[in-house]
Structure formats: C-alpha cells, structure tokens
Amino acid sequence: MSDKKFPLTGYTLPLTPEGKSSLVEPPPWYYGGEVTQVLFRTDAARATELIPAPLEIGPDPGQGIVWFVEWVSVSESNPDLAFINPERAIYRECLVMIQCSFQGEPGYIVPYIWVDNDFTLMRGFVQGWPKKMARIYLTKFSELNPKIGGKRVGAKMKGICEAHGERIVEGSLVFTRRAEPSDLPSLKFYLMRHFPNIEDASKPAVHEIVISEVSDVRVADIWAGEAELKFFESAFEEVAALAPTEMLGGFSHNMGLTITGGRVIHSYR
Amino acid sequence: MSDKKFPLTGYTLPLTPEGKSSLVEPPPWYYGGEVTQVLFRTDAARATELIPAPLEIGPDPGQGIVWFVEWVSVSESNPDLAFINPERAIYRECLVMIQCSFQGEPGYIVPYIWVDNDFTLMRGFVQGWPKKMARIYLTKFSELNPKIGGKRVGAKMKGICEAHGERIVEGSLVFTRRAEPSDLPSLKFYLMRHFPNIEDASKPAVHEIVISEVSDVRVADIWAGEAELKFFESAFEEVAALAPTEMLGGFSHNMGLTITGGRVIHSYR
Amino acid sequence: MSDKKFPLTGYTLPLTPEGKSSLVEPPPWYYGGEVTQVLFRTDAARATELIPAPLEIGPDPGQGIVWFVEWVSVSESNPDLAFINPERAIYRECLVMIQCSFQGEPGYIVPYIWVDNDFTLMRGFVQGWPKKMARIYLTKFSELNPKIGGKRVGAKMKGICEAHGERIVEGSLVFTRRAEPSDLPSLKFYLMRHFPNIEDASKPAVHEIVISEVSDVRVADIWAGEAELKFFESAFEEVAALAPTEMLGGFSHNMGLTITGGRVIHSYR
Amino acid sequence: MSDKKFPLTGYTLPLTPEGKSSLVEPPPWYYGGEVTQVLFRTDAARATELIPAPLEIGPDPGQGIVWFVEWVSVSESNPDLAFINPERAIYRECLVMIQCSFQGEPGYIVPYIWVDNDFTLMRGFVQGWPKKMARIYLTKFSELNPKIGGKRVGAKMKGICEAHGERIVEGSLVFTRRAEPSDLPSLKFYLMRHFPNIEDASKPAVHEIVISEVSDVRVADIWAGEAELKFFESAFEEVAALAPTEMLGGFSHNMGLTITGGRVIHSYR
Predict the structure, then answer these.
(1) Is A133 in contact with B118 (Cβ distance < 8 A)?
(2) What is the mean pLDDT of residues B182-196?
(3) Buried-most residue among A208, C193, D31, D201 (CB within 10 A)?
(4) How many CB atoms lie within 10 A of CB A110?
C-alpha cells in the first residue's frame, strides 16, 4: 500500500496487520514447470471473434496452442514456500492461446485457462489470465517403473481438464524426437485485465490490455511429437467453438521463468 | 460492457463472444442458506488493528461473529442454475466479522472469509469479501436418521474450516431454545474492495470501502444456543490473533436474501 | 475380534490398540438421506448379463432404478459423530439398481454405485455395495432463496455423477405431485460381497450373495415427477450398457433407516 | 473368477460382464515413485502394542520409518493406463512403518497409511495396507525455477498429510549428501489382511499376516539428510502415540518395483 497511514497490508485481499494472509504474494513470481504444448489450427473466424481491437489478427489466423503444465512457483517475498507448505506452491494448469498481433508484433491472447489452486486463480486475474478452477490430470513418466519408463521416442503423454463435472479439454502427445529450444514457438502474451465496478455492473473498474513481463526463460529436456486435441461442449464454457481443424504437432519440455509484472498497452476505460 | 464496440462480454473474466464463460454472473444474486452464527468477544486492541479509517471502532469494541453457512445461490441472468448444474450453485462458507462503525452507524468488517467454490471466490473479491478457498464441514441434521434427529433443544452443531492442510476455525453450538428474528444480531457490512495495479505492486488499481446492498432478507427456523469457538495458528492466516476472550452464544437459522451490488462510501486512491 | 488374545481392535483396517483408527465403525449403522429416485427400463438382455445365478431375472426384466442421495450416517458405537466431525458423517451417492429375484422373491442387484467419502467406500465393500469414488452434485432447494424456492409442483432436481474426469450419470426430476409412501417402489437388496485372495488372483477369499438387513425404514416429504436419465461412455465404467429405453418417472423424498448387517444366502466358494 | 460358470468378472467389485469397471486391476502391479523416507525411534512400549503375535519385537525396538511418496502405477492388464487417464495411475501416500520380526527375520508392520485415490485404497486393503484417504502435499523441486532449484546439499523437502480437516503427519528433510543404495534401510513388509464377516461383526472373514511379494526393486538419485517428524492428535487417528523420541535421519530417492501378490504366513481364523 502506498498510503503510509493505511494500517493493513497485503498484495491482494485479505489486507491484514501482518500481510501474511494475502491470497497472493507480490511479484516477482518464480515458476518452474513441466509443460506439454499442443499446436493446432482452428476456424479463423471463430478465433478472430476472440481478438478485440486494438489487438489484431496475427500472421497465421486461427493458429493456437494448448498448454498442460504442472507448475511449482514461489515469490520474492516467500522464497521458501515450496518447503513451508507445498500446497501453496504447486498447481496444474490447462491454458488455451490464440495467435494475434499488436502494432505488427505477433503474440497470443489467452481466452481460456483453468487451474487447480486458489492463489493462482487470483494471481491470474491480477495479471489478466482469465482463470477458472478445474481438475487437471497429466501423465507422469517414471524411469524406474518397470512398465512406464521415462521420456523417449514413442512415449505418450496426456492432459485432461475437467470442471463442474464436465470434461473440457483433452490433449495428447506421442514423442517422436528430441528437439531444440529454437523449435519451440516464440511466445509473447497480450493479456486482458478486467475487474468489475460494484455500483454499475455494466462498467468495469479495470479494463486494459497488458504485456506480461517475463524474464529468465529457460527450457530443457525438449521433445517433439504428434499431437491430438479435443475441446468438449459445456454449459459453462465456450472453448468448443475453437475445435481444431488441423493439428500442428506438439512439444514436451521443462521450463523456468520469472514474471515481474506487466505493462499496460491499452485501457478500454 | 458499456463500450458497444467491444466484441466480448462477461461480468468478469473470461470475456467471450457469448458471455457464458464468465466466472461470475452479474448481479442481482439470490441466496438461500443454512446459517450457524457464533458470537464472541476478542481483545479490543487486536480487533481495532483490523479497522482502517474512515471506519471506526464500534459501540462494543472487540465484538465479533463467525458464520458457518451452506449457501445455494443463483443470479438474475441464470435463475435455473441450481438445476442446470448444482455444482455451480452450492458452496460452503466460514466468515469472520468484527464490529466497527462508519459515521456513527455500527456495522461489521469482514477481515477473513473462506469458501469452497471458485465462482464465489471471485464474486467475493468483486464485492469486497476477502475470500480464500478452504474445505468447510457442517453438521447436517436428519429427522429420519434414528440416531441424529432434527433440530431440537440439545441438538449439537459443528462447523470446521480447513485450508492448506491446517485446521483454521472450529465453531459449535448446542441448541437451547427457539428464537425470534429480533433476537438475531443486526447486520450491516462495510466491505473493502481491492485489486492490484499490475505496473506498480505498491499501488492498488481499486481500493475502496463499500456498503453491500442487501434486500429481501428473510429468516426462519431460528434456534439460540450456547457456543464455542476456536481459531488455530497457521503459516498463512492471522485469524488466531482474534482468539475469543468471551463467548456470547449463537444461533442457527435459515436465511434468504438478494444482493444487488454495493455503494462506495470511501476510496483510498 | 473374537480372539481375546489378539491385541488390536477395529471393525476394519487399521486394527489398533484403541480401535478408533478403523476406517469403518461396526454396525448397526443409522442413515438419514435426501433421496431422488429415477425409474427406468433398459434392454432386458443387457440387464440380465448382470444377474448371476442363483439370482434370476425378476418379474419386470430390464427394470431399474437410479438413486442420487445425500446421506448423513452414524454408527451405534459413535452416535455423536455428526457433531464431532461432520466430514466423517456425510456423503453423497449415485446408485444403480437392476431388478432380479431370488427363489421367487423380487429384489434388486446393485451393479454400480459411486460415493464421495472413504469410510462409506469400505463400508460398502463390507456389505456388498460395489462402491467407487466420484464427485456427486445434487440440486438443493431453498424456501428462502428468492429465485429457487422449496419443493413444489414444477420444482426441478438434478443429480450429476463424475469420476476420473468423466461425466458418468446424470438424472433429473420435475415434480408433478405429492405422493404417498405406498407409491414408492418396494426395495430388497441382493448384494454381492467379494474380496480377493492374495496368493491367487483368480480365486476370491470371499464371494457370496447377501441380503442386506435393513430396519426402521421411514420416508417423508414424498414427491412424484417426470424423470430423465443419461449414462455416459467411459474408459473405466460399463454403466452405459444400461442406456434407458423407457423412463418410468421418479420420486424425491427423505428417508431414514438402520442397517444391522447382512445374511448370506449363497456362497460361490 | 475361477468358476467358469460365473458370468461376471473383475479382480474386485464391481464385477461386470467386461471386467473393466473393477476398482482394482489384478496384479502384477508396477510402481515408480519419488520417495522421502524419515527414520525415527519412538517409545518401544507404544510400538510394541502394535505388533501382534506371531510377529515379534524386532532387533531395534521402537524403530520406525515414515514414507511420503508420489507414485505412478499401472498393472499388467492395463500397462497404458498412465496415458489413457493419468488420474487412474497417480497417487500420493504417507506410510508409517514400525520394525518387527517374524521367526527371526526383521521387517516392518504398517500400522497406518494414507493415500489420495480410491483404487489404491482398495488395492491396499487387498494386500494388507490399512489405507485411509487423505490429502498429501509434497515439496517439488525444479531445476529451472529461479528460486527453487533441483536436489542439492541444503535442499529442503516437506511432506504433509491431512485428513478429515486435521493435520495428521508432517515430515521434513534437509539434504546433506548424496547416498548409495546400500545406505537405505532394507525393507520387508509383514502386512495384515482383514475383511469383516457380515453376519457377525465380531468375526472377520479374512484375517491373516502376509509377506508382500516385491520384485524389480530399483533406486536412483539418492540423497541423505537431517529429518524432522511430527504426528498430531486426532479424533480419528492413533498415530500420535508414536511420537518420535529420536530422529535418525532420512533419505530422498526415486524407486521402482513390482508387486506380484503376497504369501500368507499366518491366519488368525
């Protein structure tokens, strides 16, 4: 809080005398994840509906990516969190991104994303990731399990995302070869921050496009493969409108990064 | 969205072409709940630390209430929700309130509140309820269960709130008599809305005190009783600072109400 | 334990010095539930496949019932359990039964049943209910919720059962009239107890047909209605083979009962 | 089923025409896990209470081990399970073992064990592991997370086990050095299979001591460290009676193994 007289502290609610109750700790946030990426193309018209001005259609209209990730994350203010209580440091995620561009620079919007822990839900809203809660299941390899084994050509990976009793997304990857960092799609995120006004439900209090400030990106143990992807109909989701028309392969890799915040590039208010 | 040119819709993120993906539906919101209230007094100094100006200490410094509730809620825009998918309409809640006043009018702040479903977590942040996720367990009576029976003098009720592997709150009530609506504490909520700025973590984008706009309040089947309450130490919560110094009884009742939004009475920005 | 020299006690594992760790408490078990029944007819050949001798096809081949229930249960040895910790006393259930008969007496087998708590899973295996874990969502009515209201003609009820990220069963009921206890189907359960041998996976250690010993059955607040039912395909379930060919209405009611144990009517060993 | 005339199949309930509904698949079962072991000594008298004849006190009375594990497991009959649906192949476990011996051969009983998935709960009961459901949280390392990093001297690991709203076990390890397979405690399990009779609750239908048949044991990436351990009081657990009186260090390692079944060494019936 900038106001020195305000007696409570916290990056988000709850604001308290000590600030340790805050649902989200302040940035920088540090991430390490096991990522499965599935690349696809969908109907360009349906993808375009999701891209509001001043964002524009990207160079490859209808191109998208789904990520399934198991993340472990901590913050600058509590770097020991993964030890203090692992429950507050681990979450699983299913993320749908659609290519767009801004002033000629290609990137991705994220129309849909599901996670399985509350702190990351709110940390997402603060950054402009439109998170909802789900249960997310990811294949785990095991070098020493006599029937499963480790990552290798032919290894198979699946991600499943279920929410409110409905299967929402299912993606899979069959490993075909080791790959290089340069094989991975380049990512830049154009995120939408939005928070309602409480006096007038038709007007947001916050509504802006943000570029996520990401640094320290490192990748390792990269595999390329053949991918499949299904989006399912739901009473509470619209992702099925992005049904894949073409699969573009996929990748499995480890990843680390730091998010220090974001930079507002457009406000709708 | 007030801007007619903006192509996406939703009360909260995700904003989409149809608006059905939005994590929260717009108000009015309609609630029905089975409420257990536990009244207590805590150290006035610790309670006062939680009350930021322009709110002031109330007429009974250190007085507080804990609610355990199972709610069923729907919105104006989706009144059939409890049938379409009950998972999106039911949640359990543990709410801690501390007496304060504003311009001479007594009411309650809500420093801590836990719920067990994502839509209500975000709906809480929009209104100024500082919600976090927990698992909440509540005694259920049963007229026809041969050993449990229904509400009656001597019936016992317990609420338990657990988060991140820690028991946080435990409250209980032993029914002593039927009670009247006029026996229940009068409630007015002074809530704090807060949403971070993404460019500068030290400055909020939204920070204001709101009076919740509540109508259609009805109560029924009211019982009074003797209460107990425990707050537990936690690495991620500060509620233990509000340890009860005196118990003031409690109530169990059904309740219905409508929340139409809120009115901002102070902005800290 | 009958052997007085055996130093550990418990109705099930874990067996311990005090016996309080046991996953299941010994019978009698006392139940109170809010039950939604959906009656249907399926292909008689598929139903018959599920009925092993000495059980026989019943008088109405292919007739079945699905129950969705929220139960509260305690045992003779711990009648205060619903107060001590409600988590150990409440569970939700989705139960599929198929008509059969034994020596001319009609009843039901239970080929599939899902619950959401561990103690009832094991208590089911002990009695011959073939329980698996699921998440089960049930419409909750609310007299005081301004948009939901209580049970009444036209009220709508839904039950959803999801397991391992798949929707498994969905049933619904639209209330058309109040009904009498005599309108409800008469129930007698022929259950199959089965527990593997550990030295030879092809031979069970326990395999027998049991009549559940149920007493103190009481019902109240009975409504009849029009029903719908869907079973979904799954990689881990076979219930979809019982797809309804005809709906036979349904009921919603409260219910209480006591289970004191079971009587073995046939052993397969 | 050995009886060719019995028309249903399955290793456990539910028994069905295809056998794919069975909660547990038949052995052999293949495991791969990330194991944290914490070695301790407790009061020998309390440990001894848990050791029923013909098992005897081991050479180091009161010595015990707690394991926290994330397992991935599949069976011979469904080796692709980790891909088909990861939810059916992954679980977390907290296991308490106490040294004993049988006919002069030292080994361990397992008085308490918690897991977080239904298939392994029942697979445990079949083998004699007295499993109950819990939520289990384990530190996850991350080479690429800028603040967490991988396994190394000084790395810290924690396991937390919570059930029915109570923290039950908490163990931690600070890595001090790499270690060899020969440093790890040698394990032989004496397990108790037990399944109640339904006609007489005082007599079990199955009650026997089993030696688990384990093969293909491999370990890798072994670290030794300094350990801490806490058992907490609970209304439903007795593990607090085994409070550590001395810590004996611990290990973190990967592990693979096959369980083909068990051999009965004593029957109590």
Answers:
(1) yes
(2) 97
(3) C193
(4) 25
pLDDT of residue D1: 41
pLDDT at site A1:
41
Q: What is the dihedral angle through the alpha carbons of A145, A146, A152, A155, rounded to the nearest 10 degrees?
A: -90
Residue B168, token pair as written in the block: 């946080």
DSSP helix/strand/coil, C227: strand
Band the pLDDT of D3: cuts 50, 70, 90: very low
Question: Beta-carbon neighbour count of residue B41 at 10 Å?
Answer: 17
Q: What is the pTM of this model?
A: 0.97
Strands C56-57 and C190-196: unpaired
Inter-residue long-range contacts of D48-52, CB under 8 Å, 24+ positions, other chains counted:
D49/C7, D49/C17, D49/D241, D50/C8, D50/C16, D50/C17, D50/D98, D50/D109, D50/D111, D51/D98, D51/D100, D51/D109, D52/C6, D52/C7, D52/C8, D52/D192
CA distances from D169 to B170, D46, D215, D250 (A): 20, 17, 29, 15
D166 touches chain B (CB under 8 A): yes
Beta carbons of A162 and C160 less than 8 Å apart: no
- Report the candidate in C85, C57, C76, C40 with the shortest Cα–Cα distance to residue C229: C40
The per-residue pLDDT for range B151-177, each reduced to its tens digit, is: 999 999 999 999 999 999 999 999 999
Backbone phi and psi for residue A143, each to the nearest 5 degrees, phi listed first: -55, -40
Alpha helices in chain A (DSSP H): 44-49, 81-84, 118-127
D232 CB within 8 Å of a chain B CB: no
Over residues D148-192, the pLDDT tens digits come to 999 999 999 999 999 999 999 999 999 999 999 999 999 999 999
Q: Which residue in this structure is represented by tokens 């999106």?
A: B88
Looking at this predicted complex, what is its ipTM? 0.96
Q: Using the beta-carbon criterion (under 8 Å), do C143 and B83 form an inter-chain contact?
A: no
Please compute the mean of the pLDDT values over residues A38-59 and round it to a whole number.
97
Within its chain, how far is the Cα of C250 from the centroid? Answer: 16
Q: Which of B96, B35, B60 is nearest to B251 (CA)?
A: B35
pLDDT in tens, C8-19: 999 999 999 999
- Residue position matching structure tokens 């059904």: B254
C199 interaction partners in chain D (CB closer than 8 Å): 261-264
Structure tokens at A134: 């789900």
Contact between D57 and D51 (Cβ < 8 Å)? yes
Strand partners, B74: B30
**Rounded-to-integer distance, Cα B243 and Cα A253, Å:** 48
**CA B265/CA B194 separation, integer angstroms:** 14
Chain C contact for A160, CB < 8 A?
A: yes
Among candidates A16, A192, A241 on the partner chain, residue whose Cβ is nearest the Cβ of B111: A16
Of C137, C160, C165, Cβ closest to residue A167: C165
What are the start-end ranges of the E strands in chain B? 29-42, 56-57, 63-75, 90-102, 105-115, 131-133, 135-138, 156-163, 166-178, 190-196, 204-231, 244-267
Of residues B21, B194, B237, nearest to A13 (C-beta): B194
Cβ-nearest to D268 among C6, C128, C165: C6
Q: What pLDDT, on a 0 to 100 scale, did the predictor assign at position B4? A: 52
Q: Tokens at residue D194, please? A: 């037990």
In this structure, what are the phi and psi dihedrals at residue C33, rounded to the nearest 5 degrees?
Answer: -145, 155
Name every residue whose Cβ is closer than 8 Å to that of residue D45 and which is 6 or more positions away in sequence. Answer: none
Query: A190-196 and A166-178: which strand pairing?
Result: unpaired
Q: Between chains, do D121 and C126 touch, taking CB under 8 Å as contact? A: no
Best of A236, A242, A263 to mutate (most B CBs within 10 Å, chain B): A236
Sign of CA dihedral C134, C139, C141, C146: positive
Digit-coded pLDDT (tens) for B29-59: 999 999 999 999 999 999 999 999 999 999 9
